[in-house]
């Protein structure tokens, strides 16, 4: 992957205008799609497969008058008046008549004085409620209808006696459409200041912001365009905005910081860009993929709106990754060498005195202190985070309602007024519904059922118990004693459901508990149940991915443990603010109480990916320094040195690796914290706890876990941190996220020093018995590889064709170093793997298609005589510049085929012969046109 990214970075650097225009076109297309296709967001929540959703669907079919969204108008009489006075009753009845004729979407407007409904006037007769039932969900009610509704309410307020209160609220107005304020821009300003300090250049500091804003623009436009095909909640675009900005800035920062360091060391800007994208860019892609997997994993909960939210946020992250590895190098191509920034001041020596020692950086002092007392530091961090996590035990989950809106909003005022006059439960009525088609007396049946329900603890009253017009479905409207987001209300729902079998036997009705409140409780319960499997998925994924990347068992375990500490501590901070009320006023928390249901699972998913970012960037540098430690290299590798030497090298690697990457990780952590925390003070009530949790989680994970606890644990583990069982290392796939292939290509750029189309030195494959093979094949040359083992020949043919990886040694084919450039070799080198049932003609046509520099044909001696003749004819017609490499147990058969093809100067290489004894050379002079007709082989 790193070599592919390196090539992509180099191409983008060389063609900056093409890349920039392409991304601007993408922005234009996405923006046009949003304008043309955008259908707006929808805050209606559904959860297929639950009782409450099934109940709503049943009501939609048989009792539409109570299945849609609703609104309510509360009227409070002036002090000393009664709501039943004529001065109030007449105006209220007139308003009800106006509301009934308001719009086709209004199914009913119920007066508080309606004899069929009880509980719409409070016990003191000082307040009454007008209920409106609409056709469809809240998103189906047009803005014009809502404006007309407000006008009727305003007219009613004007006509009522002085001192009275009138307020509009209900389910229709229970959610607000979040927006972006100037406060969020403060986060970008802080990010810019951090970037300026990091890069010591105003221009360079602006580039990550530019790429992040462009990426967010594309992803946001794409999300709004997608509303034409999917239901998208209003919180989804803001979550994508937060994540897109944070990761977009950080991913560009990682690449540009590596590039700037290399340019300061004198590396050519183009070469530096290619290296930076191949090394830091590989880590960016890995980190982005982990975030994508975690976000898509939100589908574990089985809730459609949450799955959509995860997909939308993952799309924003994917765009950020794509822009980081393409547009960032393109912008560096515009900058050329002007990225070094202002040089740091050096301390000058005073006259007659020696030059002062260079200042010890803070990061070096910090990691030295942490690793000097690692056990004490580890205990302090773990105990401290454990204390911070205590408020997490108080977390209660619920869907947002009007009670969490700002106090100056119309819906919040109505919510509080209803709770004050009628009790908190009146804001969250529930409905029991079932089919009564078999009943001969539906009215009496529903009254008896209502009386039975009213006896249950937690039920304040039964407002309505009636069949529908066709007498096939009945409903019982229940007013609980507690608020919709109170845990006691959730217990009431469970209590009602526990009577299902009893009432089925007594009344013959299959009852379901439904309504907006019940749906919210079901969603919260399902989200709570999904946390454990999602947590197992996320932690298991981190263990697997980090084991593959770092070839270690302890590094993934410490990373997962650190992630758990960060998560519970972030939950604790959210609990302290939203449940305990600490700093609630300072953070403009509208109401202390339950937090939005999907905060924990979103926080777990997002923080997992971001935590892995920091783990990879810090620990990969430590691993690199450990592997290349001079003491270990002197001892011929980490496994050859004694334990004391390896332990000392491991400690040096922790300190040097931390010092080398601390600046970038610190900047990245500060930027993410600034972006997330900017959404807290003025953010939407649904988004506020998520933003606070992410900001706290990032700060804790970056600075306490990754930059304090992890170095301490690595110091405790010493060399054991980099040990892994041989059997496990053998079965793990190879993933290069540290740019090792790019560095290897740089070190071997001059090897082999000739124009060989195939060059191999010390090539070894243990299982195939190939040991330290040396091989050279000139352009246009031909050779036959022979051995006593068909398996060894097949393994060698696959390696040269880029289909297999050697255990050791160097191999370059057609100018491309393997295994890093295996994808290119597979695409440009023809290969025919002969089998008894194979179709030689089709395989040859595919192998010779285009202008391959090399064609590899395995097991040529297994071909029949007609097939050999066909092969020779096809090779005779191939280009003279195409090199041919055959493998055969019988070398004479291979030479015969090549001779028939007009390649009479082919060499034979016996790979079984000892390397010291077999270095034959077969060289034929070039032809008049300069093409090579020779094979030069060393084996």
Low-confidence residue ranges: 915-939
Separation of termini?
Answer: 31 Å
Strand content: 5-15%
- Number of β-strand runs: 19
Q: What would the average pLDDT be, to the nearest integer?
A: 84
Q: Total helix count?
A: 29
Q: C-alpha Rg, in Å?
A: 36 Å
Shape label: elongated
Percent in helix: 40-55%
Summing up helix and strand content along with how strands pair, one would put the structural category as alpha/beta
Major beta-sheet overview: 5 strands, parallel
Biggest β-sheet: strands ordered side by side in the sheet: 16-17-18-13-19
How are the SSEs ordered, and which strands pair?
Elements lengths: L1 H13 L1 H22 L13 H12 L7 E7 L9 H15 L5 E5 L16 E8 L8 H17 L5 E5 L12 H18 L2 H25 L8 H30 L4 H28 L7 H32 L26 H11 L1 H15 L8 E2 L11 H13 L7 E6 L6 H13 L4 E9 L5 E8 L6 H12 L1 H8 L4 E3 L1 H35 L3 H25 L16 E2 L2 H29 L2 H5 L8 H35 L10 H30 L8 H6 L8 H8 L10 E8 L4 E8 L4 E5 L3 H11 L7 E6 L2 E3 L3 H7 L1 E4 L6 H8 L6 E5 L6 H13 L5 E5 L3 H10 L6 E4 L29
Parallel strand pairs: 5-10, 13-18, 13-19, 16-17, 17-18
Antiparallel strand pairs: 1-3, 1-4, 2-3, 6-8, 6-9, 7-8, 11-12, 11-14, 14-15
Helix pairs in contact: 1-9, 1-10, 2-7, 2-10, 4-5, 6-7, 6-8, 6-21, 7-8, 7-10, 8-9, 8-10, 8-21, 9-10, 9-19, 11-21, 11-22, 12-18, 12-22, 17-18, 17-19, 18-19, 18-22, 19-21, 19-22, 21-22, 28-29
Question: In short, what is this structure?
Answer:
With 939 residues, the protein is of the alpha/beta class. Helices cover 54% and strands 11% of the residues. The protein is built from 29 helices and 19 strands.
Your description of this structure?
With 939 residues, this protein is an alpha/beta fold. The protein is built from 29 helices and 19 strands. The strands form five sheets. A five-stranded parallel β-sheet has the order 16-17-18-13-19, with helices on both faces. Helix 28 (865-877) links the parallel strand 17 (854-858) and strand 18 (883-887). Helix 1 crosses helix 9 (269-296), helix 4 (86-100) packs antiparallel against helix 5 (143-159) and helix 12 (374-388) packs parallel to helix 18. The protein is elongated and about 115 Å long.
């Amino acid at each position: 992957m790193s070599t592919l990214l390196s090539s992509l970075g180099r191409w983008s650097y060389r063609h900056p205008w093409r890349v920039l225009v392409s991304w601007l076109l993408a922005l234009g297309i996405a923006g046009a799609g949003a304008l043309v296709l955008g259908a707006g967001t929808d805050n209606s929540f559904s959860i297929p497969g639950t009782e409450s959703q099934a109940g709503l669907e049943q009501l939609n079919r048989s009792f539409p008058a109570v299945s849609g969204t609703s609104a309510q108008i509360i009227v409070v009489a002036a002090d000393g008046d009664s709501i039943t006075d004529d001065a109030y009753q007449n105006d209220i009845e007139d308003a009800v008549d106006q509301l009934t004729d308001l719009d086709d979407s209004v199914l009913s407007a119920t007066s508080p004085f309606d004899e069929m409904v009880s509980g719409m006037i409070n016990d003191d007769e000082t307040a009454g409620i007008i209920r409106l039932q609409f056709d469809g969900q809240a998103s189906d009610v047009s803005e014009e209808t809502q404006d007309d509704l407000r006008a009727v309410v305003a007219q009613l307020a004007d006509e009522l006696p002085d001192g009275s209160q009138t307020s509009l609220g209900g389910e229709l107005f229970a959610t607000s459409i979040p927006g972006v304020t100037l406060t969020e821009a403060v986060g970008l300003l802080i990010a810019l200041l951090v970037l300026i300090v990091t890069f010591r250049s105003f221009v360079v500091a602006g580039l990550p912001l530019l790429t992040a804003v462009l990426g967010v623009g594309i992803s946001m436009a794409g999300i709004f365009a997608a509303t034409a095909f999917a239901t998208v909640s209003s919180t989804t675009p803001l979550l994508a905005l937060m994540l897109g900005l944070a990761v977009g800035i950080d991913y560009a920062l990682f690449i540009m910081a590596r590039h700037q360091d290399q340019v300061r060391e004198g590396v050519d800007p183009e070469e530096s860009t290619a290296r930076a994208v191949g090394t830091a860019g590989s880590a960016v892609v890995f980190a982005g993929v982990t975030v994508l997997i975690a976000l898509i994993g939100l589908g574990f909960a089985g809730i459609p709106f949450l799955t959509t939210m995860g997909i939308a946020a993952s799309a924003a992250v994917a765009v950020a990754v794509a822009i980081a590895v393409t547009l960032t190098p393109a912008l560096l191509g515009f900058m050329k060498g002007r990225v070094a920034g202002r040089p740091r001041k050096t301390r000058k020596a005073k006259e007659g005195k020696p030059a002062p020692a260079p200042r010890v950086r803070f990061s070096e002092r910090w990691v030295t202190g942490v690793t000097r007392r690692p056990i004490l530091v580890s205990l302090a961090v773990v105990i401290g985070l454990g204390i911070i996590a205590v408020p997490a035990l108080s977390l209660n989950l619920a869907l947002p309602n009007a009670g969490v809106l700002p106090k100056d909003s119309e819906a919040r005022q109505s919510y509080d007024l209803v709770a004050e006059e009628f009790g908190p439960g009146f804001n969250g009525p529930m409905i029991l519904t079932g089919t009564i088609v078999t009943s001969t007396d539906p009215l009496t049946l529903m009254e008896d059922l209502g009386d039975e329900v009213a006896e249950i603890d937690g039920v304040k009253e039964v407002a309505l118990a009636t069949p529908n017009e066709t007498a096939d479905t009945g409903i019982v409207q229940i007013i609980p004693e507690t608020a919709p987001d109170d845990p006691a209300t959730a217990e009431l729902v469970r209590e009602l459901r526990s009577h299902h079998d009893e009432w089925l036997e007594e009344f013959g009705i299959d009852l379901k508990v439904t309504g907006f409140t019940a749906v919210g409780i079901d969603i919260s319960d399902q989200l709570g149940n999904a946390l454990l499997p999602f947590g197992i998925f996320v932690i298991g994924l981190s263990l697997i991915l980090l084991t593959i990347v770092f070839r270690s068992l302890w590094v993934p375990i410490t990373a997962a443990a650190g992630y758990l500490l960060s998560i519970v501590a972030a939950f604790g901070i959210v609990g302290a603010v939203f449940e305990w009320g600490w700093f609630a006023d300072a953070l403009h928390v509208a109401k202390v109480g339950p937090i939005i249901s999907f905060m924990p699972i979103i926080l777990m998913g997002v923080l997992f990916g971001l935590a892995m970012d920091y783990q990879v960037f810090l620990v990969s540098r430590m691993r690199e320094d450990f592997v290349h430690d001079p003491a270990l290299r002197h001892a011929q590798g980490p496994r050859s040195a004694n334990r004391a030497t390896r332990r000392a090298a491991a400690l040096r690697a922790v300190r040097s690796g931390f010092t080398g990457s601390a600046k970038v990780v610190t900047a990245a952590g500060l930027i993410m914290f600034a972006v997330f925390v900017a959404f807290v003070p003025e953010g939407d009530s649904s988004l506020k706890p998520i933003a606070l949790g992410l900001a706290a989680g990032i700060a804790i994970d970056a600075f306490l876990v990754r930059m304090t606890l992890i170095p301490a644990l690595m110091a405790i583990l010493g060399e054991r941190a980099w040990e892994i069982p041989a059997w496990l290392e053998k079965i793990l796939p190879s993933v290069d996220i540290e740019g090792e292939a790019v560095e290897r290509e740089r070190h071997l750029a001059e090897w082999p020093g000739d124009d060989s189309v195939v060059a191999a030195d010390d090539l070894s494959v243990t299982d195939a018995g190939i040991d330290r093979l040396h091989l050279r094949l000139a352009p246009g040359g031909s050779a036959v590889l022979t051995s006593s083992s068909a398996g060894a020949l097949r393994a060698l043919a696959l390696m040269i064709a880029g289909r297999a990886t050697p255990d050791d040694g160097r191999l370059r084919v057609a100018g491309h170093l393997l295994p890093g450039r295996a994808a290119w070799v597979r695409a440009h080198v023809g290969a025919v793997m002969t089998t008894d049932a194979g179709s030689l003609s089709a395989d040859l046509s595919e192998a010779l298609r285009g202008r391959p520099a090399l064609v590899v044909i395995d097991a040529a001696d297994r071909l029949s005589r007609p097939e050999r003749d066909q092969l020779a004819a096809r090779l005779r017609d191939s280009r003279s510049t195409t090199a041919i490499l055959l493998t055969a147990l019988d070398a004479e058969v291979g030479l015969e085929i090549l001779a028939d093809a007009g390649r009479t100067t082919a060499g034979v290489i016996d790979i079984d012969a000892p390397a010291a004894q077999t270095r034959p050379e077969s060289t034929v002079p070039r032809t008049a046109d300069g093409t090579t007709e020779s094979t030069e082989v060393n084996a």
